[in-house]
Specification:
Layout: E1 2-5, E2 12-16, E3 27-32, H1 36-45, E4 49-55, E5 61-66, E6 72-77
Parallel strand pairs: 3-6
Antiparallel strand pairs: 1-2, 2-3, 4-5, 5-6
Pfam family, one: Glyoxalase_6
Organism: Gordonia cholesterolivorans
Protein name: VOC domain-containing protein
Length: about 80
């Protein structure tokens, strides 16, 4: 299940993770940024760690990061 708040920018979405596992969030935070590259750089400078760059075939791309405690979240762009 995904819940998204906001029709425009900023938009925030939450995904519930079904099975708790070590190192995996119960809630997964998805953020959108007009300039994903700049936002990812800002978050890494603030202490986040790059986990992976991902994309779908339709041009939708996102970056998975982890906060200093290892909680993963994503930054997406259209």
């Amino acid at each position: 299940m995904t819940v998204a708040l906001g029709a425009g920018r900023p938009m925030i979405a939450f995904q519930k993770v079904a099975d708790p596992t070590p190192g995996k969030n119960r809630i997964h935070l998805d953020l959108r940024a007009d300039d994903r590259t700049a936002e990812v750089e800002r978050l890494i400078a603030a202490g986040a760690t790059l986990v992976a760059e991902r994309s779908m075939g339709d041009g939708f791309a996102w970056t998975t990061l982890a906060d200093p405690d290892g909680n993963q979240f994503c930054v997406a762009s259209d």
